[in-house]
Design the sequence.
């Protein structure tokens, strides 16, 4: 799951610098923090079964109501209901990370206040970075409102594609001539300031590997750009497009840097709980007035931000931590357990209705699956048929 797409968009300043290839320390690829025992395998399989079964059941029973029936009356309340209800399911993931896997999630940098409409950009160390942003959103009360720009191929995954669609994630082709219109069209529907929105962008466009780092360094050397060891050169077209579409209604922009101890995890690592031992998330607030508006200036500005990220990560690998740790507390174990029980109980109730109750529940499940498949395949969002007074007032303000 990647962030902004598009061409490199870097300024060429001439001159060459010696390429410094990434070192093993930079890659942070040691041995697994915990061994993969049979017990961990069984626990991982159980977690996958619970997460998939609850996701499927809740989507099938609830999504047609919140994303179709409610949306016909109010897009705003449709999004709110969807985000609140399915945000409860998303919180199963931080519960898995922090309480079951015992991963220590350490926040540092600035202590940010909860903001309703946020654009955040982050480095992309590994394929699961985007999942740990849920830990931040959960602490700020906006877990169900976080959205990503993702590869369109992910929209072909069973069940998950339904979730991506109802959450209104933005699928892209990684071809800027196509993606620009897609991003603009999707974000144009999110200009209502009443709608909470946390949009996450990964300007590198892909996750970090040694091979990609060497290629990025060679490009930087040829074009007189900073030689970065721990991040890739950022692409700026996608970020700039998001900024231009949302700037008038944004409450904050967050610059997020992510690092891991002692090994870069993949999806199976977090399912089995073998890695990571620690996730470090450093946050800095960016003032909107400090972000340039032209593409060339944004390119230079973003490259400088990633040069700073590269230095932050170099210091992290030397010192073992980011500066100004302890900006966020732990999530409540009691609240996590209560939410888990509520989700599992609801799933059990819906499964009972489907299997042992009236035949009409079986018909509802079949119709719901057909509806979700149809709207996801054709990327359809039902329109609001009833104009509310609040919507009309907002429209007048915009005009």
Sequence:
């Amino acid at each position: 799951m990647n962030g902004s797409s598009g061409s490199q968009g870097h300024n060429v300043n001439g001159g060459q610098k010696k390429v410094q290839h990434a070192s093993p320390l930079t890659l942070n690829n040691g041995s697994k923090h915990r061994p993969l025992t049979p017990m961990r395998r069984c626990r991982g399989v159980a977690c996958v079964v619970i997460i998939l079964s609850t996701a499927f059941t809740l989507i099938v029973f609830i999504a047609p109501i919140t994303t179709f029936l409610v949306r016909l009356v109010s897009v705003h309340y449709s999004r709110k209901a969807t985000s609140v209800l399915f945000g409860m399911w998303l919180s199963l993931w931080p519960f898995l990370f922090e309480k079951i896997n015992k991963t220590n999630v350490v926040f540092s940098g600035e202590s940010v206040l909860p903001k309703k409409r946020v654009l955040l950009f982050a480095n992309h160390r590994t394929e699961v970075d985007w999942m740990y942003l849920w830990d931040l959103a959960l602490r700020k009360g906006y877990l169900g409102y976080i959205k990503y720009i993702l590869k369109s191929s992910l929209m072909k995954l069973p069940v998950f594609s339904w979730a991506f669609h109802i959450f209104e994630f933005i699928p892209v082709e990684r071809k800027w001539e196509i993606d620009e219109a897609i991003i603009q069209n999707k974000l144009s529907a999110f200009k209502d300031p009443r709608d909470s929105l946390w949009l996450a962008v990964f300007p590198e466009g892909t996750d970090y590997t040694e091979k990609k780092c060497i290629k990025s360094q060679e490009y930087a050397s040829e074009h007189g750009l900073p030689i970065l060891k721990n991040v890739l050169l950022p692409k700026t077209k996608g970020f700039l497009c998001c900024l231009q579409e949302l700037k008038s209604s944004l409450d904050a922009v967050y610059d997020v840097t992510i690092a891991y101890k002692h090994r870069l995890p993949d999806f199976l690592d977090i399912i089995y709980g073998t890695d990571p031992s620690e996730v470090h998330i450093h946050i800095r607030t960016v003032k909107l007035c400090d972000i340039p508006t032209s593409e060339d200036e944004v390119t230079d500005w973003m490259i400088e931000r990633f040069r700073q990220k590269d230095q932050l990560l170099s210091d992290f690998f030397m010192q073992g931590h980011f500066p100004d740790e302890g900006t966020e507390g732990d999530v409540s174990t009691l609240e996590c357990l209560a939410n888990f029980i509520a989700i599992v109980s609801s799933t059990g109730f819906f499964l009972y209705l489907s299997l042992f109750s009236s035949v009409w529940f079986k018909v509802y499940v079949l119709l719901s699956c057909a509806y979700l498949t149809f709207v996801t395949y054709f990327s359809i969002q039902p329109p609001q048929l009833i104009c509310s007074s609040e919507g009309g007032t907002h429209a007048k303000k915009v005009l």
In short: Residues 3-9, 11-18, 21-27, 391-399 have pLDDT under 50 and may be disordered. Residues 11 and 255 are 22 Å apart (CA to CA). The beta strands are 104-109, 117-122, 146-151, 170-172, 197-201, 252-261, 278-286.
